[in-house]
Amino acid sequence: MVMPDPFVKIDVKNSVTNWLINFEEAINQNNADAASLLFVEDGHWRDLLAFTWHIRTVNGPSEIKDMVKETAVNSGAKSLKIAQHRTPPRVVDRGDTVCIEAFIEFKTKTGPASGILRLVPDSGSPDGVKAWVLLTSLEEISDHEEAIGEHRPSGENYSRTFGDDNWLDLRNKSKAYSDHEPAVLVIGAGQSGLTIAARLGVLGVDTLVIDKHERVGDNWRKRYHSLVLHNEVYINHMPYMPFPPNWPVFIPKDKLANWFEAYAETMELNIWMGSELEGGSYDETTGQWEINIKKQDGTIRTVRPKHVVFATGVSSIPVRPDLPGLQDFKGEILHSGAYTDGHKWAGKKALVLGTGNSGHDVTQDLHSCGVRASIIQRSSTHIVSLKEAQKVYAHYFEGPPIEDNDLLAVSLPYPVLVKAYQKSTRGMIKNDRDLLDGLKSKGFRLNNGGDDNTGFQMSYLRRGGGYCFNVGCSDLIINGEVGLVQYSDIDTFVSNGVRMKDGSIIEADLLVMATGYKNQQDTVRHFLGNDIAERIGQVWGFDEGGELRNMWRRTSQPGLWFTAGGLAQIRIYSKYLAMQIKAVEEGLIGAKMSKPDLQPMADAAD
After folding, report:
1. Is the pTM here over 0.90, yes or no?
2. What is the SS3 assignment for 262?
3. Whole-angstrom Cα distance, residue 536 to residue 461?
4. Strand-pair category, 505-507 with 497-500
């Protein structure tokens, strides 16, 4: 059955234009009532620095009114119009809601901005539509644009300067930090660290990255032998250097690791490999950190940056649970982060504790290496086939360029995101029915991504795990080629494996703990102390406003920032994080997050 078009009698382009005119008039007059009346009762406004210098979402008329009162005049927003060189307005279905979707652009006192406007039918409006979702996003800071394209460096400081330093000399001096301090210290040279360093570099912010591994990319290179990305190449491009068009749809770990190494060199990133964070403290008087770094030769180097960015990811300090009787187990024990491949255990027996992505992949790898493997399930897990998992990124295949799709990706506020993921999860469960029924028949405990059935994406955003993309291990469980053990049936570990509550023994020569990682707050606690950790609170997971806690924005600790996530997520949000650090460096905003979480853009002394 074809549903009727709710906009069949509405001029899509004119509706968008009229709404923007009315909204601009309302905010320029600081008329919060008029502005809020342009939204439906369950309307949402998400702002990425353009009005607030924060990452913030407001929901409903009351919060939208407050947003206008706090920010409208100081933002200087004007010239709101349909974006000229982006996808034209169209009717789409987002989160089970048919709406007019339009890319918009406008100007602020700080710089050019863009956004997304979604309109829905409303009989109470003179134009027959009101806003359901508004996204406003700062694109760049005027007079502090990225040094790319027409703003790229001239190269005059090393061109034809005979007898003076050439490009390589200058690069080596820049990386040595023998006569200057970095403005920013980034902890971790994985995708998160490399991306934020690249963003800061083109903004002219001196940035040093440190990592304990020997080579850039080792955080992927040293992982298990068969690892391949679970997301398709089309959404995973890195800023300034998209992957080549001949790359495979699913990127192997070593290929990605080598790309990271090339990326770091091409983007001229200052990186100290074989360097570990030892600890540090913050001087409130000078606004600087004093950070101790242990170099590969054992020496300690102290740097004094104004900003520290933890780019250790959602996966940082491994969790190793205290299991009953584990001290009696005589086999080898590994965390999944240290697992490489299973050939050394060929012909032997292994247990893998944990049924998330890592647990399934390690178990499948062990099986493929001739190991008799069983997987231990501690809690229910959301399982989705690899093919179905790609559907949450469907808008990346709708035609718009990646820049447009990145705006679309951040334009859904939390309440709408929940509905969108509930819809996609229902479709995935339906299409994966045979797979899921097969797992149930073996006693595997399933969930649909939390109490609200929001699937794997929300599980990742809320807790950093709890799901698995099936690339074959689920089929092995169903076929009986891989054993399934419920943790609740285990009595204790013994010297040769685990003793079950029924008295039977499941033998094992190896135990792999696929038990996840601690929160980044714990990482801060470990390196910077309890006071700073308690000051910032939890990292990751949604706060009351529907934004990820402490991510990509100022925290309660001046000069302390966090970045994490998949390649697409960090590509998008690293831009906003870098602009905030640049704004602090230029004195446009204060280094500490305002209390309450939002202040108008003019507040530069918080």
Report:
1. yes
2. helix
3. 18
4. antiparallel
